[in-house]
TrEMBL record:
Transmembrane annotation, as ranges: 12-34
Membrane topology: Single-pass type II membrane protein
Molecular function GO labels: peptidyl-prolyl cis-trans isomerase activity
Protein name per Swiss-Prot or TrEMBL: Periplasmic chaperone PpiD
């Protein structure tokens, strides 16, 4: 709602709780002012309706937020209709939660007075000018957002009432200093360990798997062998880049273009500059005075080069009498540039201030701009004209592509003839392995859409890149299903062999563990002192196991843990207390725990309200 309301609840708690409560309100709540509808509602909460319009507004708001947050990643994710449907469902559940909170607040008699709303509006920075409430600004912002003042105040009343309940719930949570400190000490713990990896690879050679074992595994685990939905496409493609090589440009055309645009082929004037630089140091006024004195000496006939050698703080140019280099317009500091290009040859400027200090600039020479010969730019002009012809041809054919593919929607043959290209095809692919040339979110979405995949019609024109479009239609469609045993037999056999090898490695690890417990010291265990939870040089499974094991007493604690390809024996020798637990860390953990507890409270409240409510999700017949 108001920026201040959002700002006032920033931080870990807001992200976990209040965003869920407030985020959709401005988009969903407004529809209650737009009139009633006889459509089947999206949901009913104890008789209160959530309309489909409310749901759609909140859903579009959430989509916009995710697009801003995820960028191109969201474009790829949104090609999957199931993903978008899951977002819509989560938005609906959030609206249901809002209804439950509103009803609970009403039942408790919570209310917000007109005075509180007025105070919230007047203290909102978005409605202020120079720190004071500006009614004109307030009205202008409401008009821009499409709200009437009374409707906006009513929305604020509901929002602020809702926050009374949620804020009271969140505000009751607290974290003891001891809790946070204990957690910090646990997280900062290190452990002295020894470990030995038993690789399963040596045991693979002796692993034997029968056809019966493969069949039994297949029958018991068919859910692992689901094939995704797949399509192959026919498509007609137009790419302006392909047309350029087929659009020859004559010498006469290139020459005519050169003559018509000759002003584009004039090189910039260049100026040879010299300067005397006085850097300000700690006394800017003294530096300016020195520069002005040098300018007066030049006005009186002093030699510029001599003064530069004796006084310029730019030591490199000073040795050359202040000489710098040839400059085109726009290269130097704007003030330096303006002064240089205002001089006549041999003149010097007045004192010019830049970020570097105080300059006196002299124009040593001028190199006028010259027209670049046609021969030097001919190739560039030809390429430009080819591209222009290609783009003109592309747009002409794109119109035919759109019209013909729409008018004859059940084939691409007529479309291909109309634009003079061949129909291309793809192999079968799923959403996860789209051919690279076509792997664009809009195309994937179209390929698996009802129009293309199920109805067998041509898609709309899809832009892959600027001046590069396609129209697609389904060639072949395979529903998701279970792969045949023959297709997965080899993979299952390899998996079962790996399981056998892992089991053999486990048995070996158990044997070694017994030896370690018995005090064996010649097994070659790798020692790691002060192992931390975030160690990168030790297998994560070994690290996890080390921190699950109890503190050893008189002898090491020894256990085994499974790895990706084998097992490991882990011996825990010592638990080291955390070093240097700072107050900042403890405070940060207190905030994090408070946010977690508060979110759990909020979700518990919603679950409790929902368990005692009548929530319906009507379905259209």
């Amino acid at each position: 709602m108001l920026e201040k309301i959002r700002d006032g609840s920033q931080g870990l708690i807001a992200k976990g709780i209040l965003v869920l409560v407030i985020l959709s309100f401005a988009f969903a709540g407004v529809s209650s002012y737009l009139g009633s509808t006889t459509d089947v509602p999206a949901a009913e909460v104890n008789g209160d309706i959530i309309t489909k319009a409310e749901l759609e507004q909140a859903y579009q708001s959430e989509r916009s937020r995710m697009e801003q947050q995820l960028g191109e990643m969201f474009a790829a994710l949104s090609a999957d209709e199931k993903y978008l449907q899951s977002i819509k469902q989560s938005v609906l559940e959030r609206l249901v939660a809002d209804k439950l909170i509103d009803q609970a607040a009403k039942a408790m008699g919570l209310r917000v007075s007109d005075e509180q709303i007025i105070a919230a509006v007047k203290t909102e920075p978005a409605f202020q000018t120079d720190g004071k409430f500006d009614n004109d600004r307030y009205q202008a912002i409401l008009r821009q957002l499409g709200y009437q003042p009374q409707a906006f105040r009513d929305m604020m009343r509901v929002d602020m009432t809702r926050r009374q309940l949620t804020a009271a719930l969140v505000g009751t949570e607290f974290v003891l200093a001891g809790e946070a400190k204990q957690l910090a000490e646990l997280q900062g713990q290190t452990r002295d360990v020894r470990y030995l990896v038993v690789d399963s690879a040596p045991f693979l050679a002796t692993a034997v798997v029968t056809d019966e074992q493969v069949k039994n595994y297949y029958d018991a685990n068919q859910g692992q062998f689901m094939s995704p939905e797949m399509v192959s496409l026919e498509y007609v493609e137009l790419n302006a880049a392909d047309f350029a090589k087929n659009n020859p440009v004559s010498d006469e055309e290139a020459q005519a273009y050169y003559e018509e645009h000759k002003a584009q082929y004039v090189s910039n004037e260049k100026r040879l500059a010299a300067h005397i630089l006085v850097m300000p140091g700690s006394d800017e006024a003294a530096a300016k005075a020195k520069a002005e004195d040098l300018a007066k000496q030049l006005d009186s006939g002093a030699d510029f080069a001599d003064l530069a050698k004796a006084n310029s703080d730019d030591t490199l140019s000073a040795e050359q009498g202040g000489k710098l280099d040839w400059f085109e317009p726009g290269v130097m500091d704007p003030a330096f540039d303006a002064a240089l290009f205002a001089l006549n040859k041999g003149q010097h400027s007045a004192v010019v201030k830049t970020d570097f200090g105080f300059h006196i600039i002299k124009l040593l020479d001028v190199q006028p701009g010259v027209t670049v010969p046609f021969a030097d730019v001919k190739a560039k002009i030809v390429a430009q004209l080819q591209d222009k012809k290609a783009v003109d041809q592309f747009y002409s054919l794109q119109s035919k592509l759109a019209d013909t593919s729409y008018e004859v929607p059940d084939t691409l043959s007529e479309t291909a003839k109309a634009v003079g290209v061949d129909i291309k095809t793809t192999p079968l692919f799923s959403r996860d392995n789209v051919p690279a040339a076509l792997n664009k979110p809009d195309l994937v979405k179209a390929a698996f859409s009802e129009t293309v995949m199920l109805k067998g019609l041509n898609s709309e024109v899809i832009e892959l890149e600027p001046n590069h479009v396609v129209v697609v239609r389904v060639k072949e469609h395979h529903d998701a299903g279970t792969l045949a045993l023959a297709e997965v037999k080899a993979n299952i056999a390899e998996r079962l062999k790996q399981d056998q090898a892992n089991e053999a490695a486990r048995a070996k690890a158990q044997e070694l563990m017994a030896q370690v417990k018995a005090g064996a010291t010649d097994l070659g265990l790798v020692a790691k002192a002060k192992l931390g939870r975030g160690a990168q040089d030790v297998d994560a499974a070994i690290v996890g196991k080390a921190f699950q094991m109890p503190t050893p007493s008189t002898s090491p604690v020894v256990d085994t843990v499974g790895l990706a390809n084998g097992y490991a024996v882990v011996a825990l020798d010592k638990v080291n207390a955390a070093e240097g637990v700072s107050d900042e860390l403890v405070n940060a953990l207190k905030q994090r725990l408070n946010a977690q507890y508060s979110e759990a409270d909020y979700r518990g409240l919603i679950d409790s309200l929902k368990a005692n409510a009548k929530v319906l999700y009507p379905v259209e017949e």
